[in-house]
Amino acid sequence: MAIDKKFVDQLVIVTSKAALASSYLVGKKDKISADKAAVDSMRSNLNNFDIQGQIVIGEGELDEAPMLYIGEKLGTNKGPEIDIAVDPLEGTNFAANNLPGALSVIAIAEKNNLFKAPETYMEKISTKVNEKNVVDLDYTIKKNISNLSDYLNKNPENLTACILDRPRHKAIIQELKKLKVNLKLITDGDISGALLVTEDKYNVDIFLGIGGGPEGVLAATALDAFSCNFQGRFLFKTEEDKRRAKKMGINDLTKKYELNEIVRGDSIFCATGVTSGDLVEGIEIQDNDFVSETLVTHKSSGLKKVIKLKQNVQ
Question: Are residues 256 and 270 in the same domain?
Fold first, then answer.
């Protein structure tokens, strides 16, 4: 069943208002307050929706409120049952330090169609290539790059890989350098990193490495609408992580998830810029109005575009 297209316009307003709320704290070196501003805005606006909504991807769990926690119910309790995934401020450090790429992100699907991901790390890979057995989490870096080169008819030195610049990725980065692959290193924001494979204009052929599991699910929702490829595998380091995963219904802790196991059916994804980045421009305030840019996808209608809105700041 398709999700009503009216929710597209409503969700764009939710993420743009959350982005606006965070924008007042850009450059203030206070990522917690910037995040809380986005959370509070998102919660109050979602509670006006005629939906029976539940957070399946959120920021922590009930005891960590005031975040939008996993299991939290939202909406007027009228209308369709909806799974909600949120990252009210993706790239909190970007916002705190006035750096490019901070976003306010939400995705929705029908009940039980979005993977309930625990707040843990995930090994992930995304490409525009949707053929099986070209790029795979189980392959070596060398095999993935060789297969991708052959498939795209490019030499490895003409490929670009996007990866979080973290000590944990040292070996992968060294291997990519050895293969002469161009690198786009990012310091945070692996939702937007994963989405750079969606359009040729971003000049990124593959996104890979270890990042947040919740961010993986959010990125997968948009990648699904672009018919891109995504795979993820959760990494459970502690016994507490494993316990929480099992409580969420994850029994095989080493399973590799395909995109169609992470998001099923119809979905809507919105990412509004707080600060300008690769995907969208940041919030611009003009007197009593503000201008926002939001990357929106709605799978069933084929919508994949950046929507620019001018709204009153009130």
Answer: no
Mean pLDDT per 10-residue section of the chain, whose length is 314 residues: 93 98 98 94 96 89 64 95 96 96 98 89 95 96 98 97 97 98 94 96 97 94 97 92 87 94 96 97 96 98 97 91
* Domain identity same for 72 and 161: no
Residue 237 φ then ψ, to 5°: -90, -35
Interatomic CA distance for residues 60 and 106, integer angstroms: 16
Residues 135 and 48 grouped into a single domain: no
CB crowding 147-164: b at 16 or more within 10 Å, else e: bbbeebeeebeebbbbbb
d(CA 207, CA 196): 8
Got the DSSP string for 27-72?
A: TSS-HHHHHHHHHHHHHHHHTTSSSEEEEEE-SS-GGGTTS--TT-
| Distance of alpha carbon 78 from alpha carbon 286, whole angstroms | 36
Q: Structure pTM?
A: 0.96
Q: Domain range spanning residue 145?
A: 121-262
